[in-house]
Amino acid sequence: MHNITLIPGDGIGYEVSLAAVRCIEAAGVNIQWDKVLAGQDALEKTGELLPKSVLDSIRKNKVALKGPITTPIGTGFRSVNVAIRQGLDLFACVRPAKSYSGVKSRFKDIDLVIVRENSEDLYSGIEFEEGKPETQNLIAQIQKDTHKIIRPDSGISIKPISKFASERIVRFAFQYALENKRKKVTCVHKANIMKFTDGLFLHSARQVAGEFAGKIIFEEAIVDNMTMQLVQKPHNYDVLVLPNLYGDIISDLCAGLVGGLGVAPGANIGTQMAVFEAVHGSAPKYKGKNKANPTAMILSGVLMLRYLKENTAADRLEKAVSQVIAEGKSVTYDLKPDPLDPSSVGTAQMADAIIDRLKKI
Ligand code: NAD
After folding, report:
1. CA 295 to ligand 1: nearest atom
2. Which residues of 270-299 are buried (b: 16+ CB within 10 A; e: fewer)?
């Protein structure tokens, strides 16, 4: 029996979370769900976007399954997703990008894993607003110390990258590669331009790579070149390890390589706990329409089962998902060759088909 925190999220979150919970239970794992609200619904009910009870529940249970949560752009609304990752120090974001037969995509047989640093970089939230006195002070100080000019009408975001967090994420990536019988880790960076941040990340990666010499191959790639290489020759890569911002961008690119956000799962992992969630967001336009593809959320559940060492259930559930997708009958609109195909099914019905298939595996 596992105690697991369930954060349904908002937008399409409720529908895809419910589908995932039903499939995970049908895979034969005994779970006591501790359901807690975060995001828009929590704000309406409790006046807080991220009530303390959410982080308390995850700290107690150590594992959570989380639906997507909306972050309106350009308002004071803080990202609940970033707050959860930072509040619990879930420093590693792991996003597999794997081809499933039956999913429309440019390439076949892709099996990449993106390991993104989750705790620092430009996502640290250290920002200086244009025109504010503290921004003017910072601009003046930088000019004094470096003789570099920043235009006075600038906003500034700070990009901290530490040796500690860089070594920690690269070691995690190598350890992951070793445990999952992977061959190669590629460190992605822009150290040629940002010598003191990306340079430190790369230097740390080279040092950690030495600990795994002879077991896992180590490669380096500059991020702009990497985007082109991935679009042209994705099969050349295995595990990628990246600072936060590049990791965010490259993981969506890789999701696109294997057929889009509807099939891209993810995990945020720390030393003590982990939160599993789809790469996609809350897709508000599909809210309550029973239209969203539940696959990414169900595959996030598969990652969660593996983390819980429920490997038999994880293998069965992944197999059921891949068979239903390969058959192409009981799948959501986005998995049909023609998205307007009237035979596409809803979120709940695709989950039903996966549960039916589990009975035969
Ligand atoms: P999104 O992923 O929500 O949606 C982009 C498009 O992708 C949708 O319009 C839809 O066409 C498609 N899509 C996404 N998920 C799908 C699914 N399961 N089935 C079928 N189609 C799907 O990205 P967005 O529109 O940029 O973001 C919407 C909100 O979600 C924003 O507030 C954003 O901040 C938030 N968000 C949250 C998370 C998270 O909770 N971890 C992640 C990303 C975005």
Report:
1. 18
2. beebbbbbbbbbbbeebbeeebbbbbbbbb
* Helix, strand, or coil (residue 265): strand
pLDDT for 74 equals 57
Average pLDDT over residues 93-109: 93
CA distance 51 to 155: 30
Residues 297-327: tens digit of each pLDDT: 999 999 999 999 999 999 999 999 999 999 9
H or E, element range at 301: helix 295-307
Q: What percentage of the chain reaches a pLDDT higher than 70?
A: 98
Instruction: Answer for the pair 19, 351: CB distance below 8 angstroms, yes or no.
Output: yes
pLDDT 10s digits, 196-247 = 999 999 999 999 999 999 999 999 999 999 999 999 999 999 999 999 999 9
Cα(229)–Cα(237) distance, integer angstroms: 9
**Cα distance between residue 126 and residue 143, in whole Å:** 19
| Residue pLDDT, tens place only, 12-54 | 999 999 999 999 999 999 999 999 999 888 888 888 889 999 9
DSSP for 48-88, written as a single string: -SS-HHHHHHHHHHSEEEE------TTSS---HHHHHHHHT
Cβ(39) – ligand 1 distance below 6 Å: no
From 49, 275, 280, 286, mutation site for ligand 1 pocket: most ligand atoms within 8 A of C-beta: 280
Asked if residue 334 has its Cβ within 6 Å of ligand 1, the reply is yes
Q: Mark whether 153 is an active-site residue.
A: no
248 is catalytic: yes
Q: Residue 281 C-alpha to ligand 1 middle, in angstroms?
A: 3
For the chain, give the number of residues: 361
